[in-house]
Amino acid sequence: MKKQFFLPLAFCLLTAMGYAQSTVKIDSSYANWYYQARVDLFNLLNDVKVDIVFLGNSITERGEWHELIPKKRIANRGIGGDNSFGILARLDGIIAQGPSRIFMMVGINDLGRGLPVSVIVNNYRRIIERFQSALPKTKIYIQSVLPLNEELLKYEYLKGKNVQVKELNDELKKLSLQYKLDYINLHEILANQQGQLIKRFTIDGIHLKTEAYLLWVEYLKKKKFL
C-alpha cells in the first residue's frame, strides 16, 4: 500500500516541478509616463496623412527622419523604451495616417525583459496582420533588430543578448517570407564580423550616432526601399 501511494505522489510532484520550470512569466507592461506622453502627442497628429512611418523604440525615435528624407511626409513613431506590446497598443493612430510605407524595428527591449523570442515573434505576427487588414496597399518593411556592442554597453539587463538578437532576426526573416514582406538586414552595414554593433556608430553600445543614421538611410535608398 505504501508503494502504491508513494509512486503517484512522486509522479505528481515531478509533474508539478516540470510545469513550474516550463512556465515563463510574461511582462507585457509598456504604458509608463513617457510612453503615454508620446502617445498623447501622436493622438493630436493622427489626422495628418503621411507617406512613411518609422515605427519602433528609442533607436527609431532618435532618427531625424523628416530631415534625412526631406521630400517625403514622414511620421516618427518611435518611443524610447517601447516594446512589441506597446506597438500593438498604438496601431490605430498609425493606420489613421494612411502611410504608403511602414518601417518597423522593435524587440530589443522585449529581450531585455527576458521575454522569449516566440512571444515577440507572435506580437510581430499580430502587428503585421492588423496592418495588412487595415492598410492592404501599404508596404510593410521588417527591419532587423540591431546588435549590441558588448564592450561599450552600459545597461546590465542587455548584456549577453546578441545571441537572442540573432535568433529573433532569424525568425523575423522567416516571418517576412511568410507574409511576403521585405526584410531589411541592417547588420550588413552596422555590424562587424563578430556580429556586434560597430564601435564607431554608438556611444553606449546600443543607441546610434548620426553617422549610423546617415548610412541607414543611404542603405534604404540603395535597396530601393525609399
3D architecture notes:
The protein is of the alpha/beta class and about 230 residues long. Helix content is about 50%, strand content about 10%. It contains eleven helices and five strands, in the order ααβααβααβααβαβαα. The chain has a five-stranded parallel sheet. It is globular. Mean pLDDT is about 90; it is low at about 1-20.
List keywords for this structure.
alpha/beta, Rossmann fold, 10% strand, 226 residues, single chain, disordered N terminus
SSE layout:
Blueprint: H1 2-22, H2 33-45, E1 52-56, H3 58-61, H4 65-68, E2 74-78, H5 84-88, H6 91-96, E3 101-105, H7 108-112, H8 117-134, E4 139-143, H9 162-178, E5 182-184, H10 187-190, H11 210-222
Parallel strand pairs: 1-2, 1-3, 3-4, 4-5
Helix pairs in contact: 8-9
